Sequence to fold (383 residues):
Amino acid sequence: MQRLAILGSTGSIGVQALDVVARFPGRFEVVGLAAHRNVERLAEQARAFRPRFVAVADPAAAGRLRPLLPPGTELLQGDDGVAALAAHPEVELVLAAIAGGAGLRSTAAAVEAGKWIGLANKESLVLAGEVIMRRAAERGATIVPVDSEHSAIHQSLLGHNRGEVRRLLLTASGGPLRTVPAAELPGVTPARALRHPTWSMGDKITIDSATLMNKGLEVIEARWLFDVEARRIDILVHPESVVHSMVEYIDGSVVAQLGVSDMRGPISYALGQGSRLALDLAPLDLARLGRLTFEPPDPERFPAFTLAYRALELGGVAPAVLSGADEAAVEAFLGGRCRFTEIAALCADVLEAHPPAPLRTVEQAIAASDWGKREAARRVMKG
Fold:
């Protein structure tokens, strides 16, 4: 029985993780659940799984949540409460699925406590990958990726010599706008950009998929997660989303992980701690699919992914600045305050505006991300 805490339990990944947990009642004990402010869903989850702890990041939501919790469940509040849950001695396994930069502090707390971490919060490594991976090695923490692409690379590396890796190939669906001509992109509405053809995700990550910024952030994540230089990480657009990513070795062999487009697969793999769980997902029917297609990403129509390589070139806090700028730019687009094509341009301007600085601490990464978000928002307001 693994004692589990799910951080971000009310989001898409958290809900699917609880679905996996419910299928294996003898395998997991849900010790803690954490969310930002979705009181109703968090209370419903608490009544279903009876955790010892529930944490809500927004202190204002705590008063509404308290009377809805089942007897015996302790309420923790604020970012400190979420971090305390991540590091609690009763927790063995942490699923870090709080979206955006808000998840970094709790991921860092789990690392410092030496936990086994299923990492679904890519921003933890985008903002502070250098620090997080170093501390994980020092503290004995294990980080297993939940992103389908990084899970695929993790699985494709198993049993192989890391020194024989030539490059990593991150696949991308291409998002909902893959075939849209350049002339139409300035007029793309949020509703159109949110219609992802393959995955069911939150608004922020869906827009990042549409701009290909999500793939750029995944390049940054892969750079630190697998200790591979950015020049050896390539992106390949694969609309069918069946090949989740690949590893090419020095003899020309390519090892890939294939599967149906269902996040419960990589979630269960991370929660299984080295073993696979028997899921009743639909089998992958390659004969029905007929063929799989691949194409390079288009930097002219979708330049956002190239900014990730630039951020890694700048180094230090630059990836954190880029991540924060993207949060504000996507928020502005969803709110009708900037055009789709202005997202990447805005992020590029903010990235270059921040003075170079080495990264030494998690708090420094958070400050750089906050600066990027404020600066992007300021530029949007300035018009």
Summary: The CA atoms of residues 12 and 201 lie 6 Å apart. The mean pLDDT is 95. The longest strand covers residues 28-35.
